[in-house]
Amino acid sequence: MSGSLSNGGQLAALLATALLVAAGPAQAVESSNPTADIVPGKETATPALVEGIREPVDAKASPADAARDHLAAKESRYRIARPGTDLTPVATLRSGVDETVRLQQKHRGVEVLGGQYMVRMEKKDGRRVVTGTSGHYFTGLTTTATPSVDEDLAVRRAVAATARQLGAAELGKDDVARAEGKQTPSVAALSGEADGLVVLPKGEGVLAYRVTVSGTTPGSGAPIVREVYIDARAGYPVLQYSALKTLTAPGTEAAAAGRQAEAGDEPVTAADLPLATGTGIRLNGRKADLELSHDTAAGRYLMTDRSRMRGTSKNALSTWDARGRYVSEASGVWPRGVKEFSSSNTDFDAAATDSGAVDAHWNAGQVYDYFKKSHGRDSLDGQGMTVNSLVGVTYYGFPYVNAFWDGQKMVYGSGDKEYKPLSADTDVVGHEMTHGVVENSANLVYAGQPGALNEALADYFGNAIDVIANGTSMDDPGAGLIGEDLCRTKTAADCALRDLNDGATTSKSFLGVSFATDNGGVHLNSTIFSGALWDMREDLGGELADRIVYKALTEYMTPLDGFTEARNAVLAAAEDLGVKAGQSNIIKRSFNAHGVVPGWEDALGVDSDTLFGRLNTADSGVGAGGGWWTTSKSNDDGSEPYSVYAGRLDGSGAPKVISPNDGRYHTSPATDGKTVVWAAYGPTSVDILSRPVAGGPIKKLHSSATGVAGLRVDKGVTVFEEYDFLGGRHVAYLRPADKAPTFVDGRDWNLGTALPSVKGDKLVYAKLYPQDGDYRLGVEIMDLATGKAALVDQLDAAQGLGQTGVNGRNVFWLANINGSDQGQMTILRSDLDGTGTVSLSNEYKPGALIASELTVSQDALTVTAQTPDTQYRNETLPKLWQFSTDGSRKGRVSCNRGDQSYPAAGDGRQVAWIDGTTGWTDLVVRERPAGNC
Asked: Which CATH code, of 1.10.8, 3.30.70, 3.40.50, 3.10.450, is assigned to 151-243?
């Protein structure tokens, strides 16, 4: 589980808890100008916002040099000791007499993630004055810039971390290909590419490798482009999130065989083709004028618009035919062989209409025109960059109902029986192209609150462009809908993707979730902020509101901003534009109505008891047994490698540190109340360590070059699974007297075992094995006293197996029987000898859950599960559900908002877990389930 969201808005406890750190105590900031309005920074001595100044600087110097000279001259205010070397220019935005310089912080020559500071100036009549500054400059960084881990190891661990997060919860038929060292259409290999070092601004700073991992998800084939940050001291993945900026949170697509994307040649179109104009019919039936190019040699008219940027960069807006291409072929790469849509005459036919090409081309022009005419911005980067739209991609031949910006281009799905091709709505095209504008300005990190802001701004401008282009009044009941023009049969309100004017979404609706869910809530939480902006636009009028929001985005916001910083940015931009007091009050009321006020996160409550708060960890978990819990925790700012702690489940006494403070990341612990076992990530190996809860020497049980998971311990017997170099999984056990682990499958290349559990002398695990020329899946029970193993009785052949569990009476496991549903799992139980198998929850019946984790006591079975749905919302996030061991009783463990993960069963019906509701990753507990929520 990646960290959950954080308080405040800055990622200074960054990516450990989420991308944001809680508001720390305000730092005293000295002002040499008593009229200056200064907002202190959080966890930094540099102010977050300075307004109300007019301080002269050199009018003859470059804007960047003048900006850095100002910061140096006012060191007592800014506490930036070496702006000339520690701040490098990113961009200078000029608008009339105004100049805004964006500067990137570096620490010992290494870029600081999200460390950007902005200086706003006015230059006229031969004079230049600084009018304000804002951003994040982290003054407490002292970390070394020399890595202890080599780049190759960082890439391998980034790929392994992504694979574990995507596929660790299930052992499936796709593991056959990995076991045999093959690559099949449905199992495309993941690959990683290092993008140098970066400093994560947590405490003294964490030096990390930034690795981009690409490929497809095992089983489903969903495209993967992930940013993974590997601690350069210990090789641990401290953060990972998706880099694809999608219109909606990725849902459960139909599983189908696909092939891995191959990078093709970048698109090339002759720059000297004659200009032409033509027409086409949009999917709403309206005729659209299209700007084209005429390929006279081929006698074809291309959907390549060179007229709009003819006087600047001479680049084009081009629409490409990607019908028949899989989404994985277009994610972060340019698919081979695609060509611009073309026609033998200037009137495009029905195929161009039905594919969404006419809409994509016309809408791209509307978006370009809006930013050019309203804000003076030439294309997405402000410098006339090429705009490419790919239309008609499918999900391996199945309909694809989504769209995304991948940093290079817009990609639009084919649509389905209910949704038209995704380019058919102007606000969808405006949304995706605005992601490009955001990326080339504030570059808001696409995770947590910054990611929700990224989505909110894309929705806001997409909606603004839509209502302008289509002449919709802001008081129209459907004016705030996103994607309403995609509907084929339903009403607009019934199938729209979001409503910015729903009148209900406020900060009380905030959902604290891990980065494994919707990148930390980027879609789930976006309408909190976009709703406030929409209300502001309705009350102020579109022209003024759009100017304010655009100015806030391009001249005030920086990559780690959260809701509170963004509110401040909008208010400051409005003041800079000279809005009247009444108009400023309208803006404040809009934010207040949506609960976006300073300290809003403090109002988030839970119905559980907190055992250990603010863990600041990623990809770790919880263990419980014998009345004790164990988990990993970093320090308060998330900058230190993780330590393993243990404490009592009844909350009595203080937690105790179990692991050594040796610079390694100590993660994924388990306990039986007497012993704690855990994994220690170091620069050369991953070690399994153990220590008595009562204290004593630490013992190394096993050292792995690849990685381990699924640690469990009972009566001193430790079990785990280890990954081999091909990605295969193998379960092992260690008894107290054993010198080396015993692998239940002998590490055989054509066997796979995973997801173990242990109780007394019974070891249970999922098994993939060959039989009669095919591979089968089953659950195996090994008697550790005799060494004999037997498969349990199966009710139906499984396509995948999930976590196992065992208590003193029964064995339990998750099974995916129907591989073509939304991912629902059957929950099964057998006797300890493998006979008497029964279903406690059948995936074919109503109410079946999409279950993943499983934990069991003598009295109850608890799973982490989602309920099938077509959208992300609180009710469909990962929640804990508890069953009686006979299946007669089922209910929610807790009604907390946000996600709930890593359940660990105590005695009776007691469960401990990691909860994201408060915006932090907290270890909490309940003695009995909440029932119906």
From this structure: 3.10.450
Q: Do 400 and 414 contact (CB within 8 A), yes or no?
A: yes
The 3-state secondary structure of 628-686, one letter per residue: EEEEEECCCCCCCCCEEEEEECCCCCCCEECCCCCCCEEEEEEECCCEEEEEEECCCCE
432 is an active site residue: yes
Are 677 and 690 a contacting pair, CB within 8 Å? yes
DSSP 255-289: P---------PPP---TTPPEEEEEEE-TTS-EEE
pTM for this one?
Answer: 0.88
Contact 451, 562 (CB under 8 A): no
User: What is the residue whose two structure tokens read 């960059």?
Assistant: 385
Pull the structure tokens for residue 400. 């694809």
Alpha carbons within 13 A on the beta-carbon side of 266: 4
Measured CA to CA, the distance from residue 17 to residue 672 in angstroms comes to 27
The DSSP element (H or E) to which 163 belongs, if any, is helix 151-167
Q: Where are the domains of the chain?
A: 151-243, 260-440, 609-926
The span from the CA of 731 to the CA of 111, in Å, is 41
Task: Give the whole-angstrom CA distance, residue 360 versus residue 423.
Answer: 5
Residue 125 near residue 59 (C-beta atoms within 8 A): no
Tens of pLDDT along 675-685? 999 999 999 99
Angle subtended at Cα 397 by Cα 391 and Cα 400, rounded to the nearest 5 degrees: 50
Backbone phi and psi for residue 160, each to the nearest 5 degrees, phi listed first = -65, -40
Q: What is the pLDDT of residue 172?
A: 85
Residues 6+ apart with CB under 8 A from 213: 158, 159, 162, 190, 191, 192, 224, 225, 226, 228, 240
What does the radius of gyration of the chain's CA atoms come to, in whole angstroms? 28
Q: Quick one: how many helices (H) and strands (E) in the chain?
A: 16, 53
* Rounded distance between C-alpha atoms, residue 10 and residue 42, angstroms: 8
Please confirm, yes or no, whether 523 is among the known catalytic residues.
yes
Catalytic residue among 432, 538, 721, 780: 432
Would you say 177 and 183 are in contact if contact means Cβ atoms under 8 Å apart? yes
* pLDDT digit string, tens, across residues 293-335: 999 999 999 999 999 999 999 999 999 999 989 998 999 889 9
Domain 609-926 annotated CATH 2.120.10.30: yes
For residue 928, give the H/E element and its range: none
Instruction: Compute CA 522 distance to the chain's CA centroid, rounded to the nearest angstrom.
Output: 7
Alpha helices in 502-649 (DSSP H): 518-521, 526-540, 542-555, 563-576, 581-593
The closest of 931, 922, 839 to 890, measured between CA atoms, is 931
Asked if residue 143 lies in contact with residue 125, where contact means CB atoms within 8 angstroms, the answer is no
Non-local CB neighbours of 329 within 8 Å, separated by 6+ positions? 259, 261, 262, 335, 336, 393
Alpha helices, DSSP H, located in 349-489: 350-354, 357-375, 426-439, 448-469
CATH architecture of 260-440: Roll (3.10)
The string of pLDDT tens digits covering residues 456-474 is 999 999 999 999 998 999 9
Residues facing 689 on adjacent strands: 678, 700
Q: Name the catalytic one among 136, 294, 523, 594.
A: 523
3-class DSSP assignment, residue 907: coil
- Does residue 423 contact residue 409 with C-beta atoms inside 8 Å? no
